[in-house]
Amino acid sequence: MISKYKIKIILGYTGLLFIIIITILGLLSSILSFQLRQEIDQNLKEKMERIDSWLTDRNEPPPCDREFFRSVISNRRISLSDILNITEHADEKYLLFICCSDVTMFLSENYKDLEESLAGLILEDRKIETVVLGTIQFSFSAINRPGYSVYLGYELSTIQAVQKRIIRIFLITIPFVVMASVLFVFFVTQRLMKIVRTITETTARITSKNLNERIPIPAGKDEITNLIVTINAMIDRLEKSFIMIRQFSQDAAHELRTPLTIIRGEIENLMMQKRITKSLAVSLESIYEEIHYLSSIVNKLLLLHTMDTDEKKYSFTPINLSAVMNDLVEDARILASKKNITITLERENDVMISGNEELICQMIWNILDNAVKYTDKKGSIKVRIRKSGPEAFIIVTDTGIGIPSDSLSEIFTRFYRVEQSHSREVAGSGLGLSISKWIAVLHKGDIIVSSRLNEGSEFTIHLPLYMKQ
Ligand code: ADP
């Protein structure tokens, strides 16, 4: 397929070529016409000199002596060719007109029909002028003597003929030149476009997961190879930065995990003591919740690292979703009870899938946790598990704040949070759904969302059912 860019280059180049050819054509035809006209005028001058001296040699004919002119010209004592010093037939374009007080003494045979037009002609002595007689254009010069005038003209059709010939030659050659140029540009841009396509495809393929890919460098050394080398160097730098960031977040998460676990244990111990005051118990519970939240972020960061580096480390076993869901919904009910949210569970028995239980629980928990987080007090959440065809479905429907339609495609992106959830000051990292999506895809399933703002959301997880071998 011919790309738009290629069409633009070809059209632009051909248009430019066309303008250049037309300009050359115009210039060439003007220069040639000018030169021809100069030659014609120069010739006329010379001829007039000859006629002048010829007339002088013959001792000035008496005014209006038609006989004189007839005898010298028509009786062929001397022919026009002799006077003009031109070859026999080349005089066809010359018009010699001699008149005496409006009476024609002599007029070249070829132009007899122009006698009427010539009758009123008055020209300055020895001045070259352009005159149109009938439809024919002439360059004229005159000798005005007392009593008579001699006019010599040269038909300018030669110039027009030359112009026509130039235009004809150009008209014949233009299509070939244009075709050749189109082919040339086509093949030159073909190479360019191929390289641009490779750059686009490779850069589109490069994500945070395969930053080790590079654009192949074509042979030769030109601006294109320089561009590719520069892009590759930029990807090098990006890769290094990504590795550093990943390493940092993993190291930080690792470093944080142990102290957080210790703090959580200590707080649990304190909370179990009987002699603590009520206000201290409330504070401890609040600290405990924050520590729990921090631990969940640390766990998500560690999971992100695994997602990026080592997808294959998880072992799969058969999982009874119906049983797993019971426990998860129970935990969610504890959270929901603080907001007076009711959670109902409808489930088919023994919905079995094959997967990693820890990841599956994490995925479902993220969705349940969000449903509780983003549903207002006294709302309700419905959880359904069912089988259909070769797939298991987990559907979580809430009556929460909903998601704006323009954010629906973004919520599975890492660190993305809808503005609205920020403004409501609901704690969150924007990582839960991206992790859940990754877990679903790892299990050859997916998560679909539908939502209406201020009415609620529905998340549907579908996973392949477990098949006994
Ligand atoms: P977070 O930690 O912010 O909850 P998630 O990745 O789990 O991160 O979710 C991304 C965003 O999607 C949330 O910030 C929230 O705006 C929106 N969201 C997710 N679940 C729901 C829901 N059930 N109702 C409304 N908005 C939701």
Write the layout of secondary structure elements.
Layout: H1 4-57, H2 66-74, H3 80-84, E1 94-100, E2 103-107, H4 115-119, E3 129-133, E4 136-145, E5 148-155, H5 157-205, H6 223-272, H7 278-309, E6 317-320, H8 321-337, E7 342-347, E8 352-355, H9 357-373, E9 380-388, E10 391-398, H10 419-423, H11 432-442, E11 446-452, E12 456-464
Parallel strand pairs: 7-9
Antiparallel strand pairs: 1-2, 1-5, 3-4, 4-5, 6-8, 9-10, 10-12, 11-12
For this entry, give a set of tags.
469 residues, alpha+beta, Profilin-like, Heat Shock Protein 90, five-stranded antiparallel β-sheet, binds adenosine-5'-diphosphate
Strand content: 15-25%
CATH architectural grouping of the largest domain: 3-Layer(aba) Sandwich
Under CATH at level 1, the class of the largest domain stands as Alpha Beta
Q: What integer value in Å does the Rg equal?
A: 50 Å
Total strands:
12
Low-confidence stretches: none
The molecules bound to the chains, other than polymers, are: adenosine-5'-diphosphate
Mean pLDDT: 85
Biggest pleated-sheet summary: 5 strands, antiparallel
H and E string = HHHEEHEEEHHHEHEEHEEHHEE
In CATH terms, the superfamily of the largest domain is YNR034W-A-like
Q: CATH topology of the largest domain, anyone?
A: Profilin-like
Determine the fraction of residues in helical runs and give it as a percent range: 40-55%
State the domain count: 3
Give me the secondary-structure category: alpha+beta
State the end-to-end distance.
48 Å
Widest beta sheet: strand line-up: 2-1-5-4-3
What would the principal axes of the Cα set say about the shape? rod-shaped
- By DSSP (H or I, 4+ residues per run), the number of helices equals 11
